[in-house]
Amino acid sequence: MDFGTQLLQYLLSGLSTGAIYALIGIGFSIVYHAIGIINFAQGEFVMLGGMVTLFLLQSLHLPLWAAIPLAVLLASLAGLVFERLAIRPLRKAPPLSLVIVTIGGSILIRGLAMVIWGNDTHRLPSFSGDDPITVAGATLLPQHLWIFGITIALIILNKWFFSHTISGKAMRACSYNPRAAGLVGIDVRRMTMFAFMISAAMGALAGIIAAPLTMTSYDVGIMLGLKGFCAAIIGGMSSGLATVVGGLVLGVLESLGAGLISSGYKDAIAFVILLLILLLRPQGLFGRPESERV
Amino acid sequence: MRRGLLNYLLVAVCILLAPLFFSGSYLLNVLVFAGINTMLAVALNLLVGYAGQISLGHAAFFGLGAYLSGVLTTTYGWDPWLTMPVAALSVGILAFIVGFPILKLKGHYLAMATLGLGIIVYIVFNEWVDVTGGPSGLSGIPNLHLGTLVFDGDRRNYYLVWSCALCCMLLSCNLANSRLGRAFRAIHDAEVAARVLGVNARLLKVQVFALSAAVCALAGSLYAHVMTFIEPATFGFNTSVELLTMVVIGGLGSTYGPFLGALLLTLLPEFLRVMRDYDIVFYGGMLMVMTIFLPGGLVRGIPGLWHKPLALRRAKGDAADA
After folding, report:
1. Which of B105, B277, B291 sits opposite A101 (nearest CB)?
2. What's the total number of domains in chain B?
3. Which end of chain B has less Cβ packing within 10 Å, N or C?
4. What beta strand segments (E) does B1-160 contain?
5. φ and ψ at A97, to 5 degrees?
6. Chain B nearest C-alpha distance from A229 (Å)
7. Is position B181 within any domain?
8. Pairwise CA distance, residues A200 & A251, whole Å
């Protein structure tokens, strides 16, 4: 394989992992806009997506097309329960408490998953076979196409929801000014709850489409969650295209770094980028700096 | 202040007398690690409890201390007593340099940045096999010794570790009651107000970050010399979270809270052997329950539980009188 094809190969696999990061990142920013916190448990919903689908397939022998929506539904219910039990009682708490409570929640969910499903690594079956497709010398799996397709569909759906439906507009209103939103009759608490459910569902779906390629186990949530956050930071915590671009950039850089530099330091690349962005451009690659109001 | 000193002496006497009751038992061995965890929790509390700046990467400083001591003594044949201050100082300086950009961030962003830092250091421990020995660890680290007295038994290590831990607690106690301690609390409560009143918040935050990192590195060195073997898994993200759990459960910003938290979280798993696989569930659950119901930690929460019904009854009594 010559260098050009190799680069193309890295680029394609980078884009597909990047798409996953983008979906997780959008989940982070939806919750961030709704309630102003970073949900450290976001990665666990990604894990739940993969693990619950696996459970439904293996133990309940459901077909794949039924298992996936059911798993997404269950994960979003988990998001709802998490918001009710952990976030709502702390609405007025300082950020430190909220950081700690979401970390506690993520450890709890991870621990429960380990207790229920054990600590083996599993692989979900691909959605439509494993026959590789050759594109200009580089190979793609059908699953890659599923990842691109589902990601694009979700991004469009997301855009449509937030700009054209009444609930989506209400959620945006809450993110601009919860108090004013409350005054015009929007149920802010319910919107927060929706935000958690939507972000959990998006995370879970990301976990499901990635699981046939990258395997799943009870502890995949930590890394995937952090990478997704990284994507959101690059995108300046926007819930739109900037985060998608952030995820893709991260995925490609990581894949190039792993291929051309060292695969052992692959995970470090994401965190070096995270630190650089946080330190140099905390408003994201595309954002304008915000001034802090006292 | 007198009362503070009295409390401290009481705790110190209890700690120093404890080995008389558990001599030769396995518990003494566990208590050595409780001592190291106490140092780490007290150090983290300086940053999180007093100055209100979160860190999810403190295991990195612990690990850097341990690896510096380990590598310098085994590969380069340095004297252990020399490597300890060198390790603590260099980690402190590193934290000071890294602290300036990182501590500009606040809240969640700070948490994520320190977490990223911790993970990068952890990856380096794993991947830099030539120096650190990689995932299989670094062995053959010498014990500390004073003349002919080698710190190799549990009892000797107990006194070695706990005397350091007691020094840390004294440091934390004194710092809390000093001008600096008040400045930290001011930063914690309202950073802008503190700066308006002339507190150099930026510098103070970095200083306390560096101090806390240096103490963690010292604990790491002690750990390396007590265990004589280190591996990256000890210094991962879980350890950082565990340290934070100790501080939160004990009581953020209190002198003895971290000590109680460290003692509790080191001893509990030993007593609850049955929980082996459930300990991660237990940690997570405990962290959530404590943050929601006892935000002040054990140190304030337990007396609070006591006072609350009393206060309620008094309030009721007043209402009945009126």
Report:
1. B291
2. 1
3. C
4. 138-139, 145-146, 149-150
5. -65, -40
6. 9
7. yes
8. 21
